[in-house]
Structure formats: structure tokens, C-alpha cells
Design brief:
This protein has 65 residues and is of the alpha+beta class. The protein has two helices and two strands. The longest helix has 17 residues. It comes from Cervus elaphus hippelaphus.
Length: 65
């Protein structure tokens, strides 16, 4: 089935929406840093620095076979 040229054209609102969603997704994928500050009942605080994410095992130095 062939699509007509009119079906492929997007309105300005549709283009704006698509670009806004893509920009928002891109900005959310940028690396960020965070610190967690926790308090207990004695009002003592402790800071937990962020650590790099680890997904699975490390790859062997000789690579995958």
C-alpha cells in the first residue's frame, strides 16, 4: 500500500512535540552526579557518594570469543 505525500506531512505542533520529546529524552540520558544525605533520630547525618553503575560481569582482557 502506498502512502500519499499528504499523509507524510507533519503539522508544526507535531514537529514541535517530537523535537521536545527527543530533547527531553537526550537530556535525561546525560551523565549526572548525586549525593545522598541521610539523617537518623539523633539528627546525625551521613553522606553517601554516588558510585559508577555496574551491569553484569567485567569483560575479559582478551575480549569475547
Amino acid at each position: 500500500m502506498l502512502l500519499s505525500i499528504g499523509m507524510l506531512m507533519l503539522s508544526a505542533t507535531q514537529v514541535y512535540t517530537i523535537l521536545t520529546v527527543q530533547l527531553f529524552a537526550f537530556l535525561n540520558l546525560l551523565p549526572v552526579e548525586a549525593d545522598i544525605l541521610a539523617y537518623n533520630f539523633e539528627n546525625a547525618s551521613q553522606t553517601f557518594d554516588d558510585l559508577p553503575a555496574r551491569f553484569g560481569y567485567r569483560l575479559p582482557a582478551e575480549g569475547l570469543k
